[in-house]
């Protein structure tokens, strides 16, 4: 029974650690935005200081593809080349970061040999190892942040901006890392949208005397 409990606690600890290692996402939306009326989107053009449109890298194409796929599959929006409801832009940033790791620290444990002068014999005494706490240290990492900005084409107002940060392996964010970060943004956005609709129904119900 005790061994099963230890195994259960170990599995639970691993699950909690993995759950806390996901991308950290934040989303801001405009109070004036009505996302239910949006149906189409397009991408803003990236130009250099001379006004020339540069070619996109493979990583940039992966970012755009990840965002477009989620808008189409989750929101039901369509990407168009003329008269979109919203225009999208994005930014990718990779910075140096660090994370704190901990190693358990134990006292010395083992046998020590002593001599009994009265019996003229040697004997061993066992000293158990004792838990003394943790040694904390910082590990250098790289953190990748993707920011998605959505602008209403009729009013030129920013109606949504979301960003998420996750640990990455190199300055070039991989496709899998891009999917994790973009997915975190959309989960946060969808969660906030559901809460906003719930609160709006609640306010309307109270105003009509239903509560």
TrEMBL record:
Pfam family name, one = DUF4136
Species the sequence originates in = Niabella pedocola
Signal as a keyword of this entry, yes or no, is: yes
Keywords linked to the UniProt accession = Signal
What is the protein named? DUF4136 domain-containing protein
* First and last residue of the signal peptide: 1-27
User: Locate the DUF4136 domain: which residues?
Assistant: 30-188
- Note the superkingdom of the native organism: Bacteria
């Amino acid at each position: 029974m005790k061994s099963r409990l230890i195994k259960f606690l170990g599995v639970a600890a691993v699950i909690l650690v993995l759950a806390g290692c996901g991308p950290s996402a934040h989303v801001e939306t405009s109070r004036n935005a009505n996302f239910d009326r949006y149906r189409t989107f397009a991408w803003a053009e990236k130009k250099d200081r001379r006004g020339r449109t540069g070619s996109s890298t493979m990583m940039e194409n992966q970012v755009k593809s990840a965002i477009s796929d989620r808008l189409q599959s989750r929101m039901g929006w369509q990407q168009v080349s003329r008269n979109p409801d919203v225009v999208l832009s994005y930014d990718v940033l990779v910075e140096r970061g660090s994370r704190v790791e901990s190693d358990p620290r134990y006292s010395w444990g083992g046998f020590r040999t002593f001599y009994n002068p009265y019996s003229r014999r040697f004997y061993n005494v066992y000293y158990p190892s004792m838990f003394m706490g943790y040694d904390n240290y910082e590990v250098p990492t790289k953190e990748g942040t993707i920011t998605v900005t959505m602008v209403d084409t009729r009013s030129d107002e920013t109606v949504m901006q979301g960003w998420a940060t996750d640990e990455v392996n190199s300055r070039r964010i991989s496709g899998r890392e891009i999917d994790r970060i973009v997915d975190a943004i959309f989960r946060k956005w969808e969660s906030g949208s559901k809460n906003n609709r719930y609160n709006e129904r609640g306010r309307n119900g109270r105003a009509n005397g239903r509560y």
